[in-house]
Write a structure and sequence with these properties.
Layout: E1 6-14, E2 18-21, E3 24-26, E4 31-32, E5 37-40, E6 43-44, E7 62-64, H1 69-77, E8 93-95, E9 108-111, E10 114-121, H2 126-132, H3 137-144, E11 149-155, E12 157-159, E13 164-169, H4 177-185, H5 191-198, H6 205-214
Antiparallel strand pairs: 1-4, 1-8, 1-13, 2-3, 5-6, 5-12, 7-11, 9-10, 9-13, 10-11
C-alpha cells in the first residue's frame, strides 16, 4: 500500500447557476463557503450544475482541482485575478500537496465525516477558457495532465474548511488519475490499456464505455 496520505481542506466551494455565455447558464464559478456543508450522493447540498447532461451526478459528485497547479497557470497567464480564488477551476475542494500522480481510480478517502472514492479524471471543456478569457488552456491541460478529478460519495456526511481529506484505502494502484487521463482523455493509450480501463470497475461507467469504444 502507498504511504499514508492526508491533506488539509483549505476551502469548500459551491456555485449557483448564473448567466455565463450569453443566455447560457453555468455554475462553473465556485465560491468558498463558511461552516459545515452536507456531502450527499449528488455532491455538496448547496452546489448546482446548470447542465446535468454533462455535469454533476453520482459519478461526478465532488470536483478537486489541485491548488498546486495555480502556480503553473500564473506562469502561463500572469497575475490573473481568478487565480487567487480557490474554486477558480470549478473545484469544490481546495487542497494543496495533492496531484493527479498521487491518487488512483478507486482510492477511498474520508472527507470530514463523509466517505468518498475517486471515480475519474476531469475532462476539460471550453468553459475554462471562457471564464479566464484565454484561449489554449484546454490544450495545455491535455498536454500537461493538469486535469483534476472527481469523487463519488460512498457514505454521506459533512465537511468544512479545516477538515482533513485522508486516504484510507488504495484502489487500482497501477491506474493513477494522471495515467488514466494520459491514456484515455489525451488519447495516448494502447489497445491493452483501453481493455484494462474498460474492465476497471471503480472507473465511471461513462469512461469505461469510452475505453471500450477505443478498442479495435
Amino acid at each position: 500500500m502507498d504511504a499514508p496520505l492526508n491533506r488539509l481542506v483549505t476551502a469548500v466551494c459551491t456555485g449557483t447557476a448564473r448567466p455565463f455565455n450569453g443566455a447560457e447558464l453555468s455554475a462553473f464559478a465556485k465560491r468558498p463557503r463558511d461552516g459545515a456543508l452536507q456531502v450527499l450522493a449528488e455532491g455538496l447540498a448547496s452546489d448546482e450544475q446548470a447542465d446535468r447532461r454533462v455535469h454533476g451526478g453520482p459519478e461526478m459528485a465532488l470536483h478537486l482541482y489541485p491548488l498546486d497547479h495555480h502556480g503553473f497557470w500564473r506562469e502561463k497567464l500572469g497575475d490573473h485575478p481568478l487565480l487567487t480564488e480557490p474554486g477558480a477551476f470549478g473545484s469544490n475542494l481546495a487542497i494543496s500537496g495533492l496531484t493527479e500522480a498521487m491518487v488512483h481510480i478507486g482510492d477511498r478517502f474520508t472527507l470530514g465525516t463523509a466517505l468518498i472514492e475517486v471515480s475519474q479524471p476531469r475532462q476539460p471543456c471550453w468553459k475554462i477558457e471562457h471564464r479566464f478569457g484565454t484561449k489554449g488552456m484546454v490544450a495545455a491541460i491535455i498536454e500537461t495532465g493538469r486535469c483534476g478529478w472527481y469523487f463519488r460519495v460512498i457514505e454521506s456526511g459533512e465537511v468544512a474548511a479545516g477538515d482533513v481529506l485522508e486516504r484510507i484505502a488504495v484502489g487500482a494502484s497501477e491506474w493513477s488519475v494522471a495515467r488514466v487521463f494520459r491514456t484515455l482523455v489525451a488519447g495516448n493509450g494502447t489497445q491493452a490499456e483501453y481493455a484494462q480501463l474498460a474492465a476497471l470497475t471503480p472507473l465511471s461507467p461513462k469512461l469505461r464505455a469510452k475505453a471500450a469504444q477505443k478498442q479495435g
